[in-house]
Amino acid sequence: MNDDQRFILAAVSRVLSYPGDSFPEELGELIEAAEEETDGSEGSQRLLGAMMELQKRSLQELREIYVNTFDWTEATGLYLTAHELGDSRDRGPALILLQHIISDAGFGLADGELADYLPALYELVAAAPENVHLKALRRRLAVTTKRIARHLPDENLYAPFFGLLVSEVFGEPSAEDVEKLEQAREKADLDDMPYPILYGMDGMAASDRPLMDMKMCK
Fold first, then answer.
1. Is this model's pTM higher than 0.70 or not?
2. What range does the domain containing 131 cover?
C-alpha cells in the first residue's frame, strides 16, 4: 500500500468506530489532516466528501444511524469472523488466531475489544509492516468489506467509506476468495478447522513482544 492508501484506511477505521462524545472534534481533526496530508486524488476527495457529510449530522443522529447500520443487520456488522463463520463454534478458534496475528505485529487490543473488530483490523493493516499473515488478512478484509458495501444502501452515510475501501485500498476480491467465505459460512458447523486456515495462517506468534494499545477514537 502507498501512503495515501494507508491514510485512507486509518481514517476510515476511526470513522467506523462508535461516535463517542469526542467524535465531532476528532472528525474535524481527521478532515483537517485529510486536507493537508492527502494528494488531492479522486480517492482523497471522496474521503473528504464522505467525512463532511458526517459532520453535518448531530452526534445523536450519528449514533442512531451507526446503531441501525451496524448493530441490527448481520450482513453489515463490524466483526470479521461473524461474516466468515456466522454463529459457528469455530469463531472462538478464529478469534484466537487473530489475537496471535495482532500480537505478532506488535499491537494490542483496547479493553473489551474483540480481535475481529473491523475498525481495529483496518488500523492494524494500515499501520503495521506487511508480513505473510497480514497479507492474508488483507485478502479476508477485502472480501468482508465488499460484502458490507454490497448490503449498504447508497443513501447510507457509511456506504461511501466501504465503497472507497473497495475501490482505493483493497480492490475487488477474487472470485476464489469470495467462494471460500461463502463455503466457510455454509460448512462452519461441520469443519474441524476455522476459516482462517484456508489462507494458510497457522496462528503461531511470538509471545514476548511488547504490545501497543490499539485504541480507536478514544
1. yes
2. 3-214
